[in-house]
Structure formats: C-alpha cells, structure tokens
Specification:
Length: 92
C-alpha cells in the first residue's frame, strides 16, 4: 500500500431528513478506518441533525466522502482541511 500524505479534516454534515440517517451512517462506516471521532447533535427545534466528523486521511479520500454525503438528498456536507499535510511517518 502506498504511503500518501494525510491531512486532518473536519466534515460538517447537516441531515434535514432523519430518514437519510441510514445512508449517512453506512458511508461513515465505509470510511471508518480514517475517522478519528464524530459528534452528533439532534436539533429538535429545527428538525435537523448536525454531525461533525474528524478525519486523518488523504485529501482525495476526505473529498470523496464529503461529496458522497452531499449527494444524498436532504443532506449537506462541507470539509474543512488543516493547512499542513501529515506524512505517514510523522509522529508527535
């Protein structure tokens, strides 16, 4: 397997129809090896769910997940990337 540089990213997801939650969760499971953590907030007043997903992955992987999430009807998604790349052998 090729060692690609990775970035830390946060994907913000807004689910406007809870019937789409199964599709969202299936995609997150598919990319689970890159997910550091996630937080979900149901917002009953506006009848939406807000999810933030923190990832450490190659940029194309983050972009692919964000795009797939955004293509689900009534789901919005946006990725925010770190400025620095994290090499495969970088350690703190």
């Amino acid at each position: 397997m090729e060692n690609k540089e990775t970035r830390i990213a946060v994907i913000g997801i807004i689910v406007e129809n809870t019937e789409q939650a199964e599709k969202v969760n299936a995609l997150l499971h598919e990319y689970s090896q890159y997910i550091i953590g996630r937080m979900g907030l149901p917002y009953g007043k506006k009848k939406v769910s807000i999810i933030s997903v923190v990832m450490d992955a190659p940029m194309d992987t983050i972009s692919a997940l964000s795009g797939k999430l955004g293509s689900i009807p009534q789901v919005s998604s946006k990725a925010l990337y770190s400025k620095e790349t994290c090499g495969a052998d970088a350690e703190s």
